[in-house]
Amino acid sequence: MARDGLKRDLVFYKTYHNNAANVAIHAVFVPGILVATLRLLHEVQAWGVSAADAVAAAYVAYYVRLHAGAGAAAGALLGTLCWALHAGAVPLSAGQAVALFCGGWVFQFVGHGVFERRRPAVADNVGGALATAPFFVLWELLFALGLYPALRAEVQAAVDAELAALARSK
């Protein structure tokens, strides 16, 4: 497990998502954006493999590298979604996927403006934010279930220190 990388990624993302209302918005719309994105990417196929499969595999490879157990859980979720897309079991048209994608981003930006009062992580590190967001939502669920309490405490302590340093620099 790349614990330092996992902690680094979670601290980076949580520093931008420390308000409960904004975290709740992201808990709903990050998965929605991911489903919408994979639904649209599923349209691009060659030899029975879709672009959604490739993107999901890249996410899972990265997540497993950060934490085997949580990465495997993410893999099960993303694998099930990709299987459902191939089976035609995702009742989401391309137009609905575009609406979900756009609406999800709007809600997240509003969450940052209204609740965090800080620009989103994607403004400072596009790749890092897009790679981390779905895993962050999974980790927030794991933490809420009482799993990995030591890691949760380490991440929150580092976030508190980052936010205090940011406040002092203003």
Topology diagram in text:
Layout: H1 3-15, H2 20-41, E1 45-46, E2 49-50, H3 51-66, H4 68-86, H5 94-116, H6 121-124, H7 126-144, H8 149-169
Antiparallel strand pairs: 1-2
Summarize the structure in words.
The structure is a single chain. The chain has 170 residues and is mainly alpha-helical. It has one domain (3-169). Helices cover 81% and strands 2% of the residues. It is built from 8 helices and 2 strands. The protein has helices at 3-15, 20-41, 51-66, 68-86, 94-116, 121-124, 126-144, 149-169; strands at 45-46, 49-50. Strands 1-2 form a two-stranded antiparallel sheet. Helix 2 crosses helix 3, helix 2 (20-41) packs antiparallel against helix 5 and helix 2 (20-41) packs across helix 7 (126-144). The longest helix has 23 residues, at 94-116. The termini are far apart. The mean pLDDT is 93.
